């Protein structure tokens, strides 16, 4: 009898252990830590590993896997959905982008910073072959299970000229492959970064990584000094797959995508410099603070400034200020906003990361203009030459020229027109083959089994379409014609495709279905963060919070460029009569004297 009981108990225990939740393991929370952890653990005290590296994406709607569990979604007829590359070349016209002068390129680039801070599909290693070396599809019997390469149609307008028929793609790692959360009925994908908007892109995802980014002196982050300026520390060259030779620079920071494109690396460098400036000022005011205290206080300020810029300056341009206030994503207040909800998971919605937010790949421009101090563009570098190749940043005066470019160059419209550097010339030098980021986006959304456009429409309160023409309530006839030429039934239309064809709602960069997802995500991101800068639990005093609210993207540019002297007050908007350039000294910012002890 005793033996039987012991067997049952052990077995129950074994089952419990086997079904460990995805995310980091063996977390021990320090009681009442004043500061957020580096890896996101213990933000939620009831569920300490919520939002940590290797957490699952959340879902708004149940998935539509072909086999209900893992395989790519199928059309209602049981056939394959239209080819992702075919959709890309049919709908997302290349090289016909219109610019809009209302918004600066910094808006696109900061959007990428926000997304990198929130999620990153956890992928198998790059070395797995998913195409032959001469870019043909592998024989079906030889295809590794993790591959989901896109078969390029024979009549492809670009790749048929080089006889390529295979665009490499690997499937995202799921709970099943990592043997976590195994009681789920279907596959859920894992994110490689923590979900909080906490600048983990510069501070690291785990304590192990983090330690390699610190000096442990006076609260500063590790930098290399060259020409009297701070640069991100050097990295192993393998991270910079676009470099032409091993002498070229390569950087490391808290995120594996640090070197992906020059403007991204510029902003990451600015945040590291900003941390160090804050730390130096705090140390001067509080010489009795040790390295740890100075570091944590500087980090708290840096993250608060980032959260403030992201929500109060950037999101209104993407999602419309009025609606954001109405939906309680933003507040018109000088006080704290104590809206933390411990029952809300910080995890990123699959539909957000793999459909709605990717819409903004349409904003990317391939030509990055370089501006002189007088505000004139005198040079440019091309994205296609600089994927995973940050070499240009330290070239003569280019760093500041690119910062001015971010603030002055108009960004592209959010529409169906894509820069060829996104759909034809992406990562050529990096992977020795051009990929089409739009086709990959569609393929990735299918890899994750996302619910259909029609399902999401009805979830968002838009009438479910019975016929294709029912889609005309939110899109124009020419867009509908694309869908008619590609899909058999309204229920077949991919969310990422249907959503991208909707007319943008006034004062926003997206149509109603994507907006519905984006609002839901950004609401969740603020309310699920116990250390959100407007929460009293963040550790800021009200006086300090008021100072944080004086920060701006322009201040980030002014304080941390090499020698930026002039800047408009609204750095996400181009220079105009209403947004003229001022001396940097007159651009307001937080006064740190409220941190003096
Ligand atoms: C030059 C700029 C950019 C480049 C080169 C770029 C490139 C990429 C690439 C290669 C991926 C991964 C594709 C895959 O394998 O699934 C990706 C993912 C993504 N991108 Fe971008 N992107 C850029 C800007 C942006 C912007 C401006 C936004 C939004 C405002 C954005 C949102 C996203 C999102 C949400 C993901 C998925 C994140 C995740 O893995 O969870 N990207 N991007």
From TrEMBL:
GO molecular function per UniProt: heme binding; metal ion binding; peroxidase activity
Signal sequence range: 1-18
GO cellular component, one term: extracellular region
Keywords annotated in UniProt: Heme, Iron, Metal-binding, Oxidoreductase, Peroxidase, Secreted, Signal
Highest taxon, organism lineage: Eukaryota
Positions that bind heme b: 361
Alphabetical list of SUPFAM superfamilies matching this protein: Heme-dependent peroxidases (SSF48113)
InterPro entries linked: Haem_peroxidase_animal, Haem_peroxidase_sf, Haem_peroxidase_sf_animal
One record GO biological process: response to oxidative stress
Subcellular location: Secreted
Sequence intervals crossing the membrane: none
Name the UniProt record assigns to this protein: Peroxidase
Species for this entry: Psylliodes chrysocephalus
Lineage: Eukaryota, Metazoa, Ecdysozoa, Arthropoda, Hexapoda
